[in-house]
Amino acid sequence: MWIISWFNSNAEFYLSMIIRLALACMLGGIIGFEREHVHRPAGFRTHILVCVGSALVMITSEYIYYHFSSHVNTDPARLGAQVISGIGFLGAGTIIKEGISVKGLTTAASLWAVSCVGIAVGIGFYGGAFIATAFIFLTLGVAKKTQGRMNVKKSTRLYVHTQIKKGEVNELSKIIEEMGGQLIKTDFISSERDGEMILRFTLAPGMQASVAEIIEAILCNGTVRRVYEEV
């Protein structure tokens, strides 16, 4: 009977806890669904776990504050601060280096952001959690599509087939920059031929030289076998 009595006396708190954790599960799932949809290393379940865990941390902080603040000096924000700084270990696991390219930074940032959403839900700041979730989702989805269209329309992509050589990427990058080209991104694409690598250079618009002149300058490098522009 004492269990029923104890639960009844704390029913309001536990009802609030269930609502907060369920809300954290939903909001984290929304962000995780977008990451899962684009096949990122941290997807649906990972974002839910991060958000729910962060919410539980803040609920625990609130519980400690109300039940023990009269006995000891407690800071309800202390545990939440540890979540914000500690989530970096999980974000680092999503960052992958492929050749000369680095991927996963956006997913790492989304994990950090969703942990903040969980903290907001856990402390009962529902308005901030909903608004932040909307902005995060729009940034990951809509902003990415808009950015992709802008890059396709304005940027120039050059594919360079060259021999595998130490410092070759730096040499080719220097040639492009000397011709007035500004590099946005450089990607390494594996080649089926032994001793050869394929590099993809993404150039910003507004180059001083034409694409043909840049290609000609790159071909002057003795190790380059083929250069062409993505159509």
Automatic annotation (TrEMBL):
This is MgtC/SapB transporter. The keyword Membrane applies. Belongs to the MgtC/SapB family. PANTHER family: MAGNESIUM TRANSPORTER YHID-RELATED, PROTEIN MGTC. It is a multi-pass membrane protein. It comes from the Bacteria. Residues 21-146 form the MgtC/SapB/SrpB/YhiD N-terminal domain. Pfam families: MgtC. One of its GO terms (cellular component) is plasma membrane. Its main location: membrane. It is found in: Cell membrane. It comes from Ruminiclostridium papyrosolvens DSM 2782. Keywords: Cell membrane, Membrane, Transmembrane, Transmembrane helix. The chain crosses the membrane at residues 13-34, 46-66, 111-143.
